[in-house]
Amino acid sequence: MQSIRIALDAFGGDNAPQVNVDGAFLALKEFQDLEILLVGREEDLKPLIKESPETSRISIVDAREVFPMSEKPSLLLRKKETSLYKAAIQVKDANADALVSAGNTGGVLAAALFVVGRIKGVDRGAIAVLVPSKNGFTILIDAGANAEARAEHLRDFGTMGYEYAKLLGREKPKVGLLNVGEEQEKGTELTKLAFDYLKNDLGDSFAGNVEGRDINYGDVDVVVCSGFDGNIAMKTMEGTGKLISATLKKEIKKSGLFGIIGALFLKRALGRLKKTMDPSEYGGAFILGVKGAVVKAHGNSNALAIKNAIRVAYQGVKGDLIKKLEEKLGGK
Question: What residue ranges define each of the domains in the chain, with the CATH number in brackets?
Answer without folding.
Answer: 1-122+289-332 (3.40.718.10), 124-279 (3.40.718.10)
